[in-house]
């Protein structure tokens, strides 16, 4: 799940840095992420990812990255969307 | 994002020491994204901190970094800014570090209007020393030193910095990470003293003592209990009790300290040449 080998993986999780706090799982508006048995994060529904970058912005451990990011505007953070779940 | 965040991290020291779900990392990410959007050269950034969990941040950052003594980050940062006014000096500090032991440095850095960006990680507690109350702990909240509830009122740090003379004052929470990052970006671009209060969760001490649940519950609590400054202005102050008012509160254009200081140096040189 964490490999960059598969180009269709929208999000990378750095398992060594993830502390299993669950913030990204709760904040993802599309419920893409789930906790594995060890509490760390895996992609359960990668096809639902809209690359909003909320998981990346909310992860306190720099452990999760959206590959490529969405648009420049989203990356700039100036857009008028909710920070996470509405 | 102009620069990937990994470029700003000393990845060899990761994972960081902060507890699972501690909001300090969310604030740090917001700061790094702001620096990335501004595309500041790494050598032109200097990050200064005091002591505390929050103050551990610069250890993980690949800029010029200084981890100083408790409460004194702003004193060191003032010296750095005077010696090198060309640097973007960013102070990362806790609520204990900035509002308790360092409170006097804070008001005077604001009064002098030194061109620093200060981000105060406000978790309403002394995290590093196991959860004593701080000057930012709201009345009635529990701490290891307030087992029956804190009797003291907390500071409104944003009002304090504004009254003391700072040029930029804003507040957001970890539930508003994008907004927070934009405020830090604006703060860095402000000539003069800029202050951003980042309200954050310490699930280990503040959260546990106050039965606030998981880190996710604490973020949701921030979201539900925050109100924008514009909306707050229309409400009765009594209705704002217990609410976190977020927004940009002040932008001023009072002269920046090192610029004024440079003029003094010029005058002194002219006097000496006469
Ligand atoms: C002169 C001095 N007094 C007291 C301490 C003990 N001490 C270390 S960190 C800290 C408080 C940290 O609280 P805060 O700044 O809110 O940061 P947090 O750990 O909550 O992020 C204190 C009192 C110290 N290190 N030095
Ligand atoms: S937010 Fe970060 S540390 Fe927390 S579970 Fe998700 S990837 Fe792991
Ligand atoms: S004690 Fe609190 S402030 Fe310190 S790292 Fe843990 S959660 Fe964060």
Account of the protein in words:
The complex is a heterodimer of chains A (86) and B (274). Chain A has 86 residues and is α+β, with helices and mostly antiparallel strands. Chain A has a single domain (11-85), classed as Alpha-Beta Plaits, CATH 3.30.70. Chain A is built from three helices and four strands. Chain A has helices at 23-27, 54-58, 72-76; strands at 11-13, 33-35, 41-43, 64-66. A two-stranded antiparallel ribbon of chain A has the order 1-4. In chain A, strands 2-3 form a two-stranded antiparallel ribbon. Chain A is globular, with a radius of gyration of 12 Å. Chain B is an alpha/beta fold and 274 residues long. Chain B has a single domain (22-273), classed as Rossmann fold (3-Layer(aba) Sandwich). In chain B, 38% of the residues lie in helices and 17% in strands. Chain B has helices at 24-38, 73-83, 95-101, 103-112, 157-164, 177-189, 203-209, 215-225, 229-233, 257-273; strands spanning 45-49, 64-67, 88-94, 116-122, 168-173, 194-199, 226-228, 244-251. Chain B has an eight-stranded mixed sheet with strand order 2-1-3-4-6-5-8-7, with helices on both faces. The N and C termini of chain B lie far apart (53 Å). The relative contact order of chain B is 0.14. The mean pLDDT of chain B is 97. Chains A and B meet through helix 1 of A and helix 1, helix 6 and helix 8 of B.
């Amino acid at each position: 799940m964490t490999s960059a080998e598969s180009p269709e993986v929208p999000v990378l999780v750095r398992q060594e840095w993830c502390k299993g706090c669950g913030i990204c799982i709760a904040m993802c508006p599309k419920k893409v992420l789930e906790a594995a048995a060890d509490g760390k994060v895996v992609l359960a529904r990668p096809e639902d990812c809209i690359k909003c970058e909320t998981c990346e912005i909310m992860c306190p451990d720099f452990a999760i990255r959206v590959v490529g990011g969405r648009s420049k505007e989203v990356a700039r953070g100036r857009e008028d969307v909710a920070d996470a779940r509405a | 994002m102009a620069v990937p965040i990994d470029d700003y991290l000393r990845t060899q020291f990761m994972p960081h020491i902060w507890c699972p779900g501690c909001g300090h990392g969310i604030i740090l990410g917001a700061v790094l994204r702001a620096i990335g959007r501004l595309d500041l050269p790494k050598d032109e950034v200097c990050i200064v901190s005091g002591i505390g969990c929050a103050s551990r941040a610069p250890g993980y950052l690949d800029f010029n970094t200084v981890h100083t003594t408790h409460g004194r980050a702003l004193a060191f940062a003032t010296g750095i800014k005077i010696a090198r006014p060309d640097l973007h000096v960013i102070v990362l500090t806790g609520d204990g570090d900035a509002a308790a032991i360092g409170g006097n440095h804070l008001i005077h850095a604001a009064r002098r209007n030194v061109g620093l960006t200060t981000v105060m990680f406000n978790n309403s507690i002394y995290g590093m020393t196991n959860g004593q109350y701080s000057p930012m702990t709201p009345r009635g909240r529990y701490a290891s030193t307030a087992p029956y509830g804190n009797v003291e009122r907390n500071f409104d740090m944003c009002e304090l910095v504004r009254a003391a003379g700072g040029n930029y004052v804003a507040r957001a929470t970890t539930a508003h990470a994008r907004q927070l990052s934009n405020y830090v970006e604006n703060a860095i671009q402000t000539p003069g003293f800029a202050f951003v209060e980042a309200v954050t969760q310490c699930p280990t001490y503040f959260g546990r003592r106050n039965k606030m649940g998981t880190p996710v519950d604490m973020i949701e609590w921030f979201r539900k209990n925050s109100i924008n400054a514009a909306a707050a202005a229309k409400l009765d102050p009594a209705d704002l009790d217990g609410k976190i008012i977020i927004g940009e509160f002040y932008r001023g254009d009072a002269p920046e300290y090192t610029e004024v200081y440079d003029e003094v140096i010029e005058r002194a040189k002219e006097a000496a040449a006469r």
